[in-house]
Specification:
Blueprint: H1 2-42, H2 49-57, E1 62-71, H3 74-78, E2 85-105, E3 109-120, E4 132-136, H4 138-146, H5 152-164, E5 170-174, H6 175-180, H7 185-193, E6 213-221, E7 233-236, E8 270-275, E9 280-292, E10 295-301, E11 328-329, E12 339-342, H8 352-355, H9 364-367, E13 370-374, E14 379-393, E15 408-420, H10 423-495
Antiparallel strand pairs: 1-2, 1-15, 2-3, 3-6, 4-5, 6-7, 8-9, 9-10, 10-13, 11-12, 12-14, 13-14, 14-15
Length: about 500
């Protein structure tokens, strides 16, 4: 029986040592295995079904919510009073994106065009596309600023032309018309006699060129040669740098295309991406950690310097001519129209901008821009891109339409593009990139713990068996001594 227990104790010790060894190996090898799987599933490759489908078709629901600034006092504005606006909306559109003309190149890059379409979602909106809104007329007030240096007689002639086509300083149209275009005799006239002057050859609308369009020819890195470069832009429309801005740094095309990022992010990482709509590269910075449906994340936000002017933040000098901090002048890529981009309600902008317009109430919760990233894979879990479109307007001599308008950067609308991982995509993502790595992580510690327990149990059993064996060996020797003592008298009697 002792021999069997010895074998059992030896078995416990062997199993324990092996378990400790296996767990220790997992501690060092496990992260390598996980990282290797992340790399394999992050490379843009048609063979990687999950990641390639996520990159190609964006199965995550994405929405654009539009808020208009309805002008309450247009006549008073023409007399020089402060504009008073009221936010209307949201008017929500489901955004459908699909990459086409996908071409892989030998230098580990891939080219594509991404087409986007928008579909109105009445159930998610506050109002309908038939709602009537009053906003500044970009054609008239924008043209007045652009043409302010022309001879006075020419300005008077153009102003008369506006009157002929019944174009006033403010527009009152439906949401659908303002978004996707309305019939304008002036637009038709300009397209006929001055082609290429306007961005649209058909109806004129703020988002007319967005719907059923593509964002240009992107060429990005697949990550096959270096995973650190995956999703980063190699060129856009054949360009490796822009020509809109005044310095080489401002004209750089940095980061990704704004949908996915390289894996293995840290708190020191930044989220850089090129936005054709903003005509420049943007960069977000780490703010805090978080959790979404059990998945760890890092939140990245827009720094206050993103739209700061060149005086407050010298690296932004290349994006000037500038006005107050918080405004990005995009006239150089928008047909010289005096259009500025900012955060909604002038959030993170110079407070003086709020003094010029009544009805604005900025807050980080409602108007801050953020992206929540899964740091291990670089996959966005929750995205909210919020930007505001503004028109610079003022009274211009010769353009009677401008009246006595005070110089002001006038908010027209702001929009939020948001999306988050949900449904089957979230389940698959959570299983492959959270549960399985978590199981592997706990297995290594459980293996070490069980191994130590088995080893200790084996050692205890071994010493217990050994002690009993020793006691068993001592007991027979004592009995032999007693028997000999009893036989001695008998031998003595026999001799006597």
């Amino acid at each position: 029986m002792a021999v069997n227990k010895s074998k059992i104790s030896a078995g416990f010790i062997v199993v324990g040592v092996l378990a400790v060894f296996f767990g220790t190996v997992l501690v060092f090898v496990g992260p390598i295995i996980i990282d290797d799987q992340v790399v394999k599933n992050t490379i843009i490759d048609p063979k990687n079904n999950l990641s390639y489908t996520m990159w190609k078709d964006l199965p995550v629901p994405f929405f654009m919510s539009v808020y208009f600034f309805h002008v309450l006092n247009p006549q008073e504005i023409l007399k020089g009073e402060k504009p008073m606006v009221e936010q209307r909306g949201p008017y929500v559109y489901r955004k459908q994106c699909q990459k086409e003309n996908i071409t892989f190149h030998p230098n580990s890059t891939v080219s594509y065009r991404e087409y986007r379409r928008y579909f109105f979602e009445p159930s998610m909106s506050v109002g309908n596309e038939s709602d009537v809104i009053t906003i500044p007329n970009m054609l008239v007030l924008g043209a007045a600023v652009i043409l302010k240096d022309l001879p006075f007689s020419v300005r008077m002639l153009i102003s008369s032309t506006f009157k002929v086509f019944k174009e006033g300083p403010f527009l009152t149209k439906t949401v659908g018309e303002l978004m996707w275009g309305y019939d304008s005799k002036l637009v038709n006239f300009l397209n006929k006699y001055l082609p290429d002057m306007l961005p649209s050859t058909g109806k004129f609308g703020i988002f007319a060129e967005f719907n059923n369009s593509n964002t240009g020819l992107f060429t990005i890195h697949t990550g096959r040669d270096d995973i650190k470069n995956v999703h980063k832009v190699d060129s856009w429309n054949g360009l490796t740098e822009l020509s809109y801005w005044r310095t080489p740094q401002s004209n750089m095309i940095n980061g990704t295309a704004g949908q996915l990022w390289p894996p293995f992010m840290t708190k020191e990482s930044t989220l850089s991406f090129y936005s054709p709509d903003a005509c420049r590269s943007l960069e977000l910075v780490y703010q805090r950690p978080g959790v979404m449906n059990g998945i760890p994340l890092y939140r990245f936000v827009a720094p206050k310097t993103m739209f700061a002017n060149g005086i407050d933040y010298p690296p932004n000098e290349g994006f000037c001519p500038c006005r107050q901090s918080g405004l990005l002048n995009v006239s150089s890529c928008r047909y010289n129209s005096p259009v500025f981009i900012s955060h909604p309600h002038f959030f993170n902008a110079d407070p003086v901008l709020l003094d010029y317009v009544l009805g604005l109430h900025p807050s980080e919760e409602e108007h801050g821009l953020f992206i929540d990233i899964h740091p291990l894979t670089g996959v966005p879990l929750n995205v909210s891109i919020r930007l505001q479109l503004n028109l610079y307007m003022k009274s211009i001599l010769g353009f009677t339409e401008t009246g006595k308008i005070s110089e002001v950067v006038m908010p027209m609308l702001w929009f939020e593009e948001n999306g988050y991982i949900d449904g089957p995509v979230l389940t698959t993502f959570h299983t492959n990139l959270v549960i399985l790595p978590g199981v592997m992580k706990y297995m290594q510690y459980i293996s070490i713990a069980l191994g130590l327990v088995n080893t200790v149990v084996g050692i205890l059993v071994y010493y217990k068996v050994k002690r009993k064996t020793c006691e068993g060996d001592t007991l027979p020797r004592g009995n032999t001594s007693t028997s000999t003592g009893e036989r001695t008298p008998l031998l003595q009697v026999k001799q006597h």
